[in-house]
Amino acid sequence: MFEFELNSQELLKRRVRYLIQTDYNGVADFLEHLHDRKVDEKEVETFNLFLKRGKINFEFLEALSQKTKIGEIPLRRLLNIEFNNEDLFKS
Fold first, then answer.
1. What is the pLDDT of residues 16-74, one digit of tens each?
2. 59 with 65: CB under 8 angstroms?
3. Which end of the chain is more exposed for a tag (fewer CB within 10 A), N or C?
4. What sign for the dihedral angle of Cα 33, 34, 35, 39?
């Protein structure tokens, strides 16, 4: 049986990417929703770099929990690799 470990940063990064793809019209739309303002191209590039590296800080987690579906999911499920994104975020 093959098993692999996926660290929580990578898992959360995948969850956020899935959310952007399914609920928003791209990264700019997602960031505008989180920050309640227009974002510029540099902010989008910076966010993409942070997400690519898995750099997620507390302020970002707080915004996710307050303004996206991620806030409706218990942390135990959110970080559990056994739940795929589709099952986790279905309405």
1. 999 999 999 999 999 999 999 999 999 999 999 988 888 788 888 899 999 999 999 99
2. no
3. N
4. negative
Distance CA 8, CA 14 (A): 10
Q: How far is CA 37 from CA 32, 56, 69, 86, in A?
A: 5, 20, 19, 28
Contact 33, 39 (CB under 8 A): no
User: For 85, left (φ over 0), alpha (ψ -120 to 50), or beta?
Assistant: alpha
Q: Which amino acid is at 82?
A: E
CA nearest to 64, candidates 7, 8, 11, 20: 20
In whole angstroms, give the CA distance from residue 81 to residue 33. 27
- Whole-model pTM: value is 0.84
